[in-house]
Amino acid sequence: MEAARAAMAWCGVEEEKEIGSRKAPGACPRCGGAVVATDVESARRILCLPLCVRNKKKFSCTRCRRSLVAIYSN
């Protein structure tokens, strides 16, 4: 397991951290459940040096757990 983590650090890995979530307007087109908007910060790193940091908003259904869409922002 440690060897795999060390290899990923050399090759580059994208880490995602959930910042927050809240109820979003609308309903799931598949099952009609409530939609949740989750703010996620992702960082691509190579050799522990951050290359880029992205903020994105992911929408998912609370009933069927289906991922609906991800919106990237600057």
TrEMBL record:
- The protein in question is named Uncharacterized protein
The top of its lineage is: Eukaryota, Viridiplantae, Streptophyta, Embryophyta, Tracheophyta
